[in-house]
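Need tokens for this chain, all 366 residues.
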Amino acid sequence: MTDSQKLQNKLKQNIAVKLVLIVIIACALLLPVTVITWLNEGYHHLHLVHIVFLILAFALYFRPSKQLFGIDVALVTMFLSFVMLIGAYGIGINSGLLALLFSSCLVLLYLHSSMLSAIYGFLAIALVATILLLKPDSVIFPYDAHLSLDTAYYVWNFSIISVLIAFVVISTLLAETYKKFSQSTLLLAKKKEELDYLANHDHLTGLSSQRLAQEQLELTLNMAKRHEFKAAILYIDIDEFSLINDALGHDAGDYALKEVAKRIKELIRDTDIACRQGGDEFLVILHFPVSKEACDIICKRLIAAFDQRVPYKDHEIKINLSIGVAIFPDHGDTQYELRTKADKAMQFSKKHNKHNFTFADEIETK
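Here are the structure tokens for all 366 residues:
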């Protein structure tokens, strides 16, 4: 079951519990009327049905597990149908039965299926129509001037209570629909945010992805050209990274990559961007203000950050970095030129001067 389905079932379960609570409240509020009528006019089987609904609703509401909410839906639908049929038999179409019918169909539609809701609606309409046809004298208008005071009082009360029950049920469903829509919107936004993050970040180190770094580098170069300032890129490679994997396993290699990424982020400015190029290579984009002296300082800090071995479980990992530096516009004015020269400078450091850095214009002089 997907997270979306679990959320949907949880929402339906919560709605079913709230609807059962509505049944409890309705039955409890009307219980004094049932008791008084029972004592004054004698027993009627409707009194027993009322009490049974109240007991069943209590039992369902306070049961330990509410995962099987289908029985809640069945109880609520039966209760609404019961009130609807009593109204149809005793008062007729003015009893609020249309509101009860609509609310019952809505409950089944929301908590079960459209098919069951349609079948129920068809059968309920057929049954109510049959009652009205077989007992035409039950059609009583609450505003009929010929009604006795007691009858008019009963008709008005029953009609108001029926509509009120239906209104509370429908309002609950609409409120939960809005809540469900809001939660679904938040879930979709969260999923989109997660997808955007995965698309723009390396899953292991959390650094920017190659695609995002490429876009940011192009943007930086365009700004540097327009405002005539310098920018720089650092190509960083972990020397003999394969030895870490071979000696301690890939988990140690992943730890080393994350540790390098962590320290790079700590040592560069918030305006600069670091990304993992893939494997054991990293790229750092330095924004304005940039100078050769500033690059020199940053590179020395990165190298010094790994002068000491890095603790890993019961072992220590020696991490050496080789860095190549290319500055715009001194070493090139396009992304391709800068990347190529920074890569060559890094390879030069890796071959001739490990755990150190080289500027692109220094390759020919060394």
